[in-house]
């Protein structure tokens, strides 16, 4: 079995104080993809930066205190790559990938955007550059006999079932028609060629949501968004047997505004 978890930690130093370290000690995951780390290595305690039993790769943002992604793997990666070849985003702390035997796994933190601002323009530029890279990665990996798994905070709810209040968010970043269309291209067999693993395993349910605002009672009422995805090439997606959102038992036990999303894959 291969078990992979993705989670936006909303600041790794803060998460470590709230329960991340204990969660990490208990997890059975083989690979963990982190987003919004917001810290450089020297700012993290030793047990957080280099936890025992894990190989770690960090890709911090050049903008201090923002973004940042990381990969934790039980076995040493064969190769690591930071960024995806677009100069604007090479040091933005938004993408890192590692090669493991037969698999390329990546942690992605796609910009969140905000309608009518430069942040939305940045998000659109990122999407325009990232889809061609995803296609190229899929083709290169197939030629090498490798599968691909891109996990992370994609900051787009693809379908109405992916957020509770979809009617009120039709003009909000994260649920704009053009963003949803872009994600449809990622999942189109004749275009991006990837699969939404969690939705394939949970085809007829609302959610399962992975992010809830800290405002109001969003978590208690399960008024959430499903924006944390495990996106895989078809061969790997076909081996997925279980996907769960590790939702905290109560609001006060959360160590991030996101919950870990964990997927189990069978061997070939």
From TrEMBL:
PROSITE patterns: AP_NUCLEASE_F1_4 (PS51435). The gene is xth. Keywords: Hydrolase, Magnesium, Manganese, Metal-binding. One of its GO terms (molecular function) is metal ion binding. Its cofactor is Mg(2+); Mn(2+). The record marks 228 as: Important for catalytic activity. Its EC number is 3.1.11.2. This is Exodeoxyribonuclease III. Gene3D superfamilies: Endonuclease/exonuclease/phosphatase. It comes from Streptomyces daliensis. Belongs to the DNA repair enzymes AP/ExoA family. It is an enzyme of class 3 (hydrolase). Probably binds two magnesium or manganese ions per subunit.
């Amino acid at each position: 079995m291969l078990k992979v978890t993705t989670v936006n930690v909303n600041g790794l130093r803060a998460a470590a104080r709230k329960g991340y370290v204990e969660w990490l000690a208990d997890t059975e995951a083989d690979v963990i993809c982190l987003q919004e780390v917001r810290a450089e290595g020297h700012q993290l305690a030793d047990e957080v930066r280099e936890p025992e039993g894990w190989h770690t790769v960090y890709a911090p943002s050049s903008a201090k205190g923002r973004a940042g992604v990381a990969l934790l793997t039980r076995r040493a990666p064969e190769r690591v790559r930071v960024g995806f070849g677009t100069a604007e985003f090479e040091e933005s702390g938004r993408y890192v990938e590692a090669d493991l035997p037969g698999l390329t796994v990546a942690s992605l933190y796609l910009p969140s955007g905000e309608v009518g601002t430069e942040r939305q323009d940045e998000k659109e530029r990122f999407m325009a550059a990232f889809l061609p890279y995803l296609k190229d990665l899929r083709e290169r990996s197939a030629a090498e006999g490798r599968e691909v798994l891109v996990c992370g905070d994609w900051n787009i709810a693809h379908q109405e079932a992916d957020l509770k209040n979809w009617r009120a968010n039709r003009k909000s970043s994260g649920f704009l028609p053009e963003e949803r269309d872009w994600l449809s291209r990622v999942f189109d067999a004749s275009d991006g060629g990837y699969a939404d693993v969690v939705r394939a395993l949970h085809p007829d349910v609302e959610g399962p949501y992975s992010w809830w605002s800290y405002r109001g009672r969003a978590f208690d009422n399960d008024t959430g968004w499903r924006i944390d995805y495990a996106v895989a090439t078809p061969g790997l997606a076909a081996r997925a047997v279980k996907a769960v959102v590790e939702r905290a038992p109560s609001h006060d036990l959360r160590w991030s505004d996101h919950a870990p999303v964990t997927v189990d894959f069978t061997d070939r």
